[in-house]
């Protein structure tokens, strides 16, 4: 039986895990989804073998898409663009709704595999699958309600002017491993809604739910070639996709260095649309007027949700000195009670990532950090990639641990005295993705919130999302915004018309 028929039926953790235990070294082999069907890979196939984050054992085999595979997918998307770009909004909307309905019927299947593949808890995976469903529903309805204005050119009443938008073309959609389906569908849904076609490349570390999504596209009767899925690594498959001259836009979420690489690889292709959502090292400011029974759980969640593997995590906590002494032990106690490895917290995604995080913890130890909880994990991961939630203090603000995105369950805590100092500390970082402000002072909420160098600022909240508002970062955290009208700008070209008569 092929991999899709096998995996599609395993929609409980028990059945999926039984299957994984029984397959031994015959791990299922995923297939690219090109031109409406799962199929051939160009020979010889090089297989990438991601491991199960909970056990460290072989999970699946991913074909490493070659330039030929990418070209076939781009061919299919280019041909499909000719009709999909002219398909009515009503019809596109209906296809997106069918996709969301099938996803919704199979949501437990997707949650189970997301949890296994990425290591996240099943509860977290369920939240993310709901969001993937919303991504399709949101853009399916958005396109039905867009408004445009036609007006006279000022002083020339015989000339009308209006803005006309058309889909850009074939897009390369490249996503990371931390929220695989959630982030991939955040790109696929607007791409389809606004009349573009695409080639999506999920992370080679977590490709399973993207593979299952191909079956959803098939069942939803998404016309062949409109969305293709090519698996493979970044330097080979991803790079070939980004560099293809027939790919007219790239929407990417991932590490900052990869974003820089993609900018370099596309710099000569001036007209290519580029949307880059990159890393964060996000500050969380805790002022002394807050109720700690609310601030501590919020800070812990922002630090440790998905084992700290969300680009929006608040990984640098700054606490006003008057409450610092109470906040720190309360954070440790809350985390100990609520983030238990193997129960309410999963492993990190891969061996490579485990070693990367460990490297930062070794450095923290060398720099005499206080480990209020957590420790440097073993040099070699044992039975999965488990790293305990770690709370650090007493690091110099110049430390790499304080400045670079660790993307794991590691948070640093540091005191401040004044509001000005808090803002300066928050902004003293090359990244500018998100910021969190905790205060009960209404004036301060805006005063501080509006000065944080970040594309997203949450006040007394975190990860609250409204899909119509702009999502993306400042400074090294990216280029452009997505969400609502911003996604429309990514996936469409704008021409302004001036219509007069002789
Ligand atoms: N959303 C975020 O902020 C994320 C940040 N990261 C950060 O980046 C670090 C590295 O993680 P990686 O998995 O290596 O992220 P990455 O940025 O290499 O991977 C993200 C996606 O980009 C693709 N990719 C890699 N190189 C490419 C290239 N030259 N051209 C086109 N596509 C390419 C990958 O195959 C994957 O699909 C992490 O440790 C973390 O700090 C990682 C994932 C998500
Ligand atoms: O859109 C969201 O709600 C969350 C997005 C998270 C990322 O982009 C990330 O962690 O990379």
TrEMBL record:
It holds the Pfam family Aldedh. Residues 47-496 form the Aldehyde dehydrogenase domain. SUPFAM superfamilies: ALDH-like (SSF53720). The active site is at residue 277. Keywords: NAD, Oxidoreductase. This is Aldehyde dehydrogenase domain-containing protein. GO terms for molecular function: oxidoreductase activity, acting on the aldehyde or oxo group of donors, NAD or NADP as acceptor. Belongs to the aldehyde dehydrogenase family.
């Amino acid at each position: 039986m092929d991999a899709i028929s096998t995996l599609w039926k395993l929609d409980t953790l028990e059945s999926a895990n039984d299957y994984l235990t029984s397959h031994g070294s015959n791990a299922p082999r995923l297939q690219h989804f090109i031109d409406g069907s799962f199929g051939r890979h160009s020979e010889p196939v090089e297989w990438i073998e991601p491991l199960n984050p909970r056990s460290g054992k072989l999970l699946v085999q991913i074909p490493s898409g070659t330039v030929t595979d990418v070209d076939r997918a781009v061919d299919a998307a280019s041909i499909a663009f000719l009709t999909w770009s002219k398909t009515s909004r009503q019809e596109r909307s209906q296809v997106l709704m069918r996709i969301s309905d099938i996803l919704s019927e199979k949501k437990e299947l997707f949650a189970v595999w997301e949890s296994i593949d990425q290591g996240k808890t099943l509860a977290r995976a369920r939240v993310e699958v709901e969001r993937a469903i919303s991504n399709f529903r949101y853009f399916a309805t958005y396109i039905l309600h867009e408004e445009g204005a036609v007006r006279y050119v000022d002083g020339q009443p015989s000339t009308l002017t209006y803005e006309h938008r058309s889909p850009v073309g074939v897009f390369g959609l490249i996503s990371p491993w931390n929220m695989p389906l959630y982030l991939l569908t955040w790109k696929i849904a607007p791409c389809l809604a606004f009349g573009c076609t695409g080639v999506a490349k999920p992370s080679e570390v977590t490709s399973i739910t993207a593979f299952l999504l191909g079956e959803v596209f098939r069942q939803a009767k998404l016309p062949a070639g409109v969305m293709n899925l090519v698996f493979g690594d970044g330097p080979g498959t991803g790079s070939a996709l980004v560099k293809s001259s027939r790919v007219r836009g790239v929407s990417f979420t991932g590490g900052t260095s990869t974003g820089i690489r993609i900018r370099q690889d596309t710099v000569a292709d001036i007209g290519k649309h580029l949307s880059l959502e990159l890393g964060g090292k996000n500050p969380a400011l805790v002022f002394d007027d807050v109720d700690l029974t609310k601030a501590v759980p919020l800070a812990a969640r922002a630090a440790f949700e998905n084992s700290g593997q969300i680009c929006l995590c608040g990984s640098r906590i700054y606490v006003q000195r008057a409450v610092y002494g109470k906040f720190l032990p309360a954070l440790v106690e809350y985390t100990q009670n609520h983030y238990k490895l193997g129960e309410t917290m999963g492993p990190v995604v891969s061996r490579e990532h485990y070693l990367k995080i460990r490297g930062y913890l070794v450095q923290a130890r060398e720099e005499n950090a206080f480990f209020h909880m957590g420790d440097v994990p073993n040099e070699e991961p044992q039975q999965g990639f488990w790293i305990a939630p770690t709370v650090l203090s007493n690091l110099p603000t110049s430390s790499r641990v304080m400045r670079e995105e660790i993307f794991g369950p590691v948070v640093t805590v540091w005191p401040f005295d004044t509001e000005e100092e808090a803002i300066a500390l928050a902004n003293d970082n090359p990244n500018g993705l998100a910021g969190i402000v905790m205060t009960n002072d209404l004036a301060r909420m805006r005063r501080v919130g509006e000065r944080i160098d970040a594309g997203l600022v949450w006040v007394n909240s975190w990860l609250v999302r409204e899909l119509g508002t702009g999502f993306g970062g400042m400074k090294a955290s990216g280029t452009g915004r997505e969400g609502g009208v911003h996604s429309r700008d990514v996936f469409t070209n704008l021409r302004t018309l001036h219509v007069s008569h002789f």
